[in-house]
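Recap quiz, item 2
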Amino acid sequence: MGQLNMFYHFDVEQDFMYKANTFIQQLNRMSELDAELVHLIHHEMKDDRGQIINKTNEAIEQYQKNNQSHNDMYKNSMRTAAWRYTHMINDMRGQNITLYYDVVTREKKR
Amino acid sequence: MSNEEVLNTDILRARIMNVEYQNLTIGEIKREIKRIYIEETGKEPPAHIAIYRSDDFKDFRHIDSGFDGTAIHFYDEEKGINQAYIITRGSEASEKDTWKPLDWFYNTFGIFVGQDKSQYRDAMHFDEIVTKKIDEDLEKNKCDKKVKLKKIGLGHSLGGNLIATIQLTTKEYEQVYVINDAPPSYYQLAKIDVDFWYDLAERFNLNPLNYNSIYTLPPSELKAFAEEYYKKQIDERSIHHLTAQEDLLYAVSGVRGFIDIGSRRVIDTNKDFTSIKDLVSKISDKDVRAIQVYLSQYSDVYNEKGFDGIVQAMTGVDIAFIESLQGYDSMDYVWHAGDIVSKANHMLDDMKVKIPELMKNVAILYKNLDPIFSVFVELGYVTPEEKKTVLSEVKGIEKDVASIQQLLRKTWNWRMAIPFLTPLVTDDILQWKASIEVLFQIRDKVLDILKRLQIIQENTANLQKAITMSVDAHTLNEVITALARSKGRTYDEYGNLIFIKKVGEHEIRMNLSSAVRIYQKGLQILEEKEAVLHEMKQRYFDEYVEDFEMQKRKLMKKIEDMEQNPWAYQHLLGHFTYDADQVYVLRRIDVHEFIPPLDPMIPHIFETMFSYYELEISKGKELIATIKKSFEEFFEQDQNVSKIFDLRYG
């Protein structure tokens, strides 16, 4: 019995980058909510002065700044995760296989 | 099951009445009522609050009396509360759809003269239909009606006059609370209340069919009769007046027409100013009438557009429109004919009504001004020189108004209206230019009046200050601020509650309403972030963890299929022609499957992100909590502060 080793793709290649989009939308929503929070605090405190106000304003601005940079970073991470997943699944779909076969000689009719 | 009054303090009632002036939507009114109730009591408001506004009933959409009212229905089956607060709105700066200051006209002609009962009639009608609607809604919502509906009347200014007058004539409410009200007037009551009028006519031997004969009676006797009559009709203890000592209406309430029924709490809203009552009391009864009309007009325009707005309202002249014509050349008149025709017609129509009225008012004013200003001089509000200047300028205004009237007549003689009415006329440019020249002359006269008013304003600064303080004291804001002051509180222009505390020499003010909104809305935002985070975690599980398992299962199924049905993959050995000597026949396939676990970078990315957001949300909550904590620590004696933060404004 003869045998033949080969690499076989069980499925076509697929792009899973779309998976990043929903997460990016959710991260955008997180940013919007941060902006709402900052706007709320600034709006409510616009006519007020004092130590507590200054400290709160400082803290909330720092909070938003910090969140924004993380948010941007995580959006990139979402793309990276989708990219890695695409590669992983497409790689996984290709497997080594061994084919076992018989060589059959046909009798020719005279 | 006590059904004790929900709005049981002056400050609570005053703040709720003030909401009526803010032109809010029903949802916003409800939120404001909840907020105010929580801030003032530190308690949860009744479970059910319904708002009914006169504007929302079809019967009131087209009325032109100027009446506006709101009813607030509190219902709480558990607490045994079933109460309706009927609020009649006070004098408005201007009505929504008309230039006419209807409320102040009503103040003057309805209350002072007594000849108009339109707003009283509309207020009564509103009370009737709103009571019926509340009953229907209770029925519809299957509410237990074991607790009888308690009706309470609230009103400020003109609104106070309306609600108190309804109480005097119908005994409709269990209690009536009025703030800086225009007192009920016997002239008006005689017009409204037939029984009163017949008793009065009998007592004073008047012909009941001749209403005007009432003006011949001595005001003091009429007042005594009216007060005695109504004290017999109603329980006097059901009407409560809250009055700012400095209030303009209170200052003039001693004049002819007004009666005093019910209890009265007088509060000091301005430590540096007492009242213009001394000024009013020195002026003769006849002159008071003139000054009262003058002050009503002043208050209205003052509220609406400030001093400069007076001229526009009095004359009907649209200065901006006339100014816009200045840069036009001949052809421009032709191009803009349609627009000019429409605006000029509108303005001329307006002037036709307003100028003769103004002429009449200025003449009356001038006649009464000399004795009135003599009193002002005597009391030190103006100097003799200032009086002289003011009188001379008023005379000048009289002349200017007469000139405008002349010019208006001239426009008719020149048939100015004809080209304006026929915008297609393009051949009579000269006539157009002449007509527009008249408009410029009118504008110049109006500007002269403005200059004169400016001079009058400069020469009556002290007087105006006193009147302005009196007008200010009339507003609910001043009353609310005065009521709150003793509790170490105040309110800003938006109705926010400000806590005041003295620390050493410094006064520290903290805006509690803002802080509560930041706390409650801030927490809401952070809760929404938590919800988004939760969704992200779920999605990560679905999109990666679960999806990866599914991909593996799909692959394993295909592998199994290959191993179990190798013949189906014969093509992998190539194709053989029909005459080939040898063929390869596939017998078996072994798949050396290698299925790695999920790329560890992927869970790492997500877990890092999730823990960041968890931490960040909890930091946000801490930040928000700090605001609450600062208030609690700062006002540690006030138990209500911490409760207020935890009760939802709605």
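The CA atoms of residues 42 and 643 of chain B lie 6 Å apart.
The longest strand of chain B covers residues 582-592.
End of item.
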